[in-house]
Write a structure and sequence with these properties.
five-stranded antiparallel beta sheet, NADH Oxidase, alpha+beta, globular, binds flavin mononucleotide
Length: 236
Amino acid sequence: MSHVLDAILRRRAIKVFDPVEISAETREQILHAARVAPSSFNIQPYRFYWVESPEMKNEAARLCFGQSPAATASALIVAVADIGSWKSTTASELAWMRTAGFNEKAIAEHERRAKFGKWFFIQGWFGVFGLLKWTILRVVHFWKTMGTLPVARQGMFKWATKSASLACQNLMIAAEALGLNTCPMEGFDGRRLGKLLGLSGKDHEIVMVIAIGKKSARHVDQPQWRRPLEATVRIV
Ligand SMILES: Cc1cc2nc3c(=O)[nH]c(=O)nc-3n(C[C@H](O)[C@H](O)[C@H](O)COP(=O)(O)O)c2cc1C
């Protein structure tokens, strides 16, 4: 079996970790694997907080309700959907294109798309513009094939969470491939954890916290159950 498939199939949500130190090199490999995940418009609308200092980790674990994976992990990775990063990401991608040898035509086209794309993100005061966009598009949709745009902040967070979740899965598989183990968690106090990390109430929403470390002998793997394939998949 390929190494990738092997890591995917081996991954389990680990409840107890042994205290091991994760080297800076391994940490970087894992985070790099996370950020090469695909993302909508390549905007990468998320950020990761790798919490490893004992004080911060203990406090973050407490805000994960002291769950055993959080309390025993070597580090806690907080994945945050970031709906405010699109402007700087677009600008930095354009700056990269200018130094990476893209021709003027490709840069101009990217610039044009970025200018047009900003209408996708802008929601306006209390989401009024988002709602207006949605209404207009619903009407146009009657005779034209098209996708729908996110409306207001919750729609934007839903949009950003999709890309963030793919990065989280990449991260967990990479950890597994590098001999570490993980547990994704949504059991946390998002408001307090956000405050601890200095997140913006306007642009940031925690998607999940991933406990990472080395599986302890004290962890007992439960049998892994999944719905039958035909309950999950329909071939049409
Ligand atoms: C979004 C999400 C949130 C989860 N939250 C928690 C959690 O708060 N605590 C926990 O112990 N496990 C949590 N899990 C782990 C699941 O319980 C676990 O993945 C599931 O039972 C299947 O087990 P497996 O991953 O070992 O196959 C979460 C998983 C996901 C994907």
